[in-house]
Amino acid sequence: MTEYGPLTEKEYYTLSERNCFTKAEDDIYDGRLKICDIPFEYRSLRMYRVAYRRYPYSRVIENDYASVADEITLLENQILNDIKECEDRYRKNGNLSKEYPWYLLRARVYCLKRLLARGVIEGVFRKEKIIFDLPDYFPLQNSVTRNKDVVSFESVYNVYESMEDYIRAKNDLLDGRLKIYKVPFEYRSRVFYIMAGRFVAGRGKTESDLLKKTILDDAEESAERFWKYGNLSKRYPCPDLLLRKAGMKNIMIDFKFYKFFGYKKLRMISGCDILRKKERIMQKACIFFK
Description:
- This protein has helices at residues 9-14, 23-29, 45-53, 62-93, 105-121, 148-156, 163-175, 190-200, 205-229, 241-257, 271-289.
- By secondary structure, it is mainly alpha-helical.
- Helix 3 runs parallel beside helix 5, helix 8 (190-200) packs parallel to helix 10 and helix 10 (241-257) crosses helix 11.
C-alpha cells in the first residue's frame, strides 16, 4: 500500500512546486514506487515518462539491463494494459472526470502507443508485443522536401556525394572559416562538432557559449523533429534522432571534460581523478537532457 505521508492521496500524485516532480514522480524515479501501484485515474503521461527514463540506456549495457529486466517487463505490460483499459472505459463511459490529471482517454491511448513505440525503437521493449504498426507513429522523413539551408549548404559543400567537399568542410570547421551553427541541422555530425570544438578551445567565452547553445538547441530539435516527423532520411550522417540526442549529451560531457569551452588547459591528473571528474560532469549534463 502506498504511503502518502502528510499529503492527501490527490496531493501525493498531483502536487508539485516550481514545475518539479510530484512526490509520486520522485518515488517512481527513485524506484520506491511502481507505475502499476498508482491508481489508473492518477497515472499521468509524466509519470510514465519518469518511469521510462529509468531504463533507456540500460538496454545497451547487458548487465544493467538484466538487473532491471523484471521492472521493464512490468512497465511494458502496464502500458499495454492501460491502452486496452482506456479504450474500454472510453467506449463505455467516455472520458474521466476533469479532477484527474490525464482525463482524456483517447489522448492517453495515443501517447501511450507512442511511448511504447519509442521503447521498441530504443531497444527497451520487445517488438513482438506491439499491437499496432510502428510506421503509423514514426514515419521516416524521406518525403520531406530539403529546405533552402540544406540546398545552399550542398551547393558549397556537397558532402553527400564528394569526399573532397567533406574533408574541406571538416578543415573549414577546424580553422573557423565555417561555423557549426551555419551547418544545416541535417548535416551536423559528431565529426563536425569535434572539429568545431577544437577550433573553439581556448578562444574565449563568446565562441564557447555559441557552441554550447548549438549543442543544446540541436538536442532539443532532435527530440522535437522525431516526435513530429520521425527520423531523418538516410542520406544524412545521423538519421536516428533519438540516438543523435543522446550523442549531443556525450559531446557536451566530452567538451566540458577536455576544456573545449574556453577555460584553462587540462592539467595532468590521475586516472581516478579523471573518472570522478567525468562522473560530476555527466551528472550536471543530465540536467540539460532530461
